[in-house]
Amino acid sequence: MTRKKTYGQFCPVAKAAEVVAERWTPLVLRELICGSSRFSELKKGVPLMSPSLLSQRLKELEYAGVIETRPASSGRGSEYFLTEGGEQLAPLIEGLGHWGKRWLKPEFEEGDLDPGLLMWDIQRRIDLSAAPDQPRTTIKFVINGVPANFRNWWVVYEHGDTDLCMKDPGFEVDLYVTMPMRTAAEIWIGRTPIAQAVRDGDLTLDGSKNQVNAFHRWFALSVFAPT
Questions:
Q1: Long-range CB pairs of 132-136, under 8 A, 24+ apart, other chains included
Q2: How far apart are CA 144 and CA 150, in angstroms?
């Protein structure tokens, strides 16, 4: 592997930063810590990162001993997993997120409002133990204020698994969730309570009483929301 530029210092902070603080690397580590292991899953968590750069960062992390590559359980392709050293980075990455939530300016720039990342986070944080007890549940999210091709999302959970779809899966919708992108981000990160967004008319829930009442139980917020 081509040797990267270094800080020219033997200090462990400098040596660690050469690996962990490279552009995009903290976000790739965030995705791995959150449980993503396939290349396609990692790409969903960093949609603005080019596939070639993601591949390069994964190779760098593997070379540094932070991750290891294993054959995919499906028999096709590879999967990426944190090594013991990589797992010990979890408190660092999570602490960085909590610090950013607490101390940095609260305003979201327009370029920060990424519906793809939002829905990917929502899908993998759903608390299935609190979901309505039925064979299949289909939730349609309508995110306003974004390009048309990123406006409609379907989350389907059945048999203990959840799937995120950008195209109508063809199932009957049990609950419609409609909100502007900025409101969605504010709710997700814990700055706006769900009940307040509903009262203000920024969040609309349309479905059976059982589905509406269950929403706040299975809709688990970001891990950084409590900060």
A1: 132/174, 132/210, 132/211, 132/214, 134/174, 135/159, 136/171
A2: 9
Distance CA 141, CA 151 (A): 8
Spatial neighbors of 103 by CB under 8 A, at least 6 apart, are none
**Out of 2-11, 89-98, 131-140, 153-162, which region has the weakest mean confidence (pLDDT)?**
2-11
Q: Which CATH class is domain 12-103?
A: mainly alpha
Fold of 110-218: Nonspecific Lipid-transfer Protein; Chain A (3.30.1050)
Of 202, 205, 201, whose CA–CA distance to 214 is shortest?
Answer: 205
Average pLDDT, the chain: 92
Contacts of 102 (CB under 8 A, 6+ apart): 227
pTM for the whole structure: 0.85
The pLDDT tens digits for 52-99 are 999 999 999 999 999 999 998 877 889 999 999 999 999 999 999 999
Alpha-carbon gap, residue 122 to 104, rounded angstroms: 23
Note the Cα 201 to chain centre separation in Å: 26
Which residue ranges make up each domain of the chain? 12-103, 110-218
